[in-house]
Amino acid sequence: MNRRLHDERIFRGTRRRRFHEVPWIDLPDGAFVLDAGAPWLVFDSELVAWGPSGYGERRRRPRRGTATGITPPATVAVLRAGYPVQIDSSAFA
Asked: Would residue 46 count as lying in a domain?
């Protein structure tokens, strides 16, 4: 599993991050996406900004189109299958 996740995170033979295009509707709570070059947590109908100082701005999650997923597809599949996600309470402050 570690190899698979590594392959889904990094382009083989490089240190370059790998991202995945995912329809917004297919993203479960707990997944992270890139938007305008910044990471956002997907939660319910919202996106919550994340940065070095923690969670921040909230905004409405798009309903159409695709997102640039940070979370590896294997992890997205596990979350979508019902694995209980734990999100720090500061994301909801």
From this structure: yes
